[in-house]
Write a structure and sequence with these properties.
Blueprint: E1 3-8, H1 14-30, E2 35-38, H2 42-54, E3 63-65, E4 80-83, E5 93-96, E6 110-115, H3 119-134, E7 139-143
Parallel strand pairs: 1-6, 1-7, 2-4, 2-5, 3-4, 5-6
Amino acid sequence: MTRIDFYVLSSADAQARLALICKLSEKAIGRAEKVLIHSDSTEELQELDELLWNFRPVSFVPHKLLPKGFVTSGTDNEAVHLSLDGPGADRTLLINLATNVPPFFSRFERTLEIINDEPSIRSSGRLRYRYYQQRGYPLQHHKM
């Protein structure tokens, strides 16, 4: 069963949220996990794509921004995919930035939900939390 981790930031700062996503991605690839960062916003993924190249001068997070409708073959060498669509078969960790629960989240060993204090992100995060909770998924809560 997929484990769900909620990372909750105390500020509404969008950049702090994106920086945390970069750090979590870096940590995941250090454990040889294949990551899918899913969003329903092209602009958010493009901003994250840029930040993953530059967020820390001494690290490199190999990643690829996938075009809408692109389906991977499962043999892609990039550790992190940024996508508006579903995952390739080789992904083990989902970082969800979308407003709703992605219909494919249960294919992953873990799903991370990154919540900050911006009202729309916070309220949609609460709805997703209830969704997972009502279905019996194991939930972890991390205050940042």
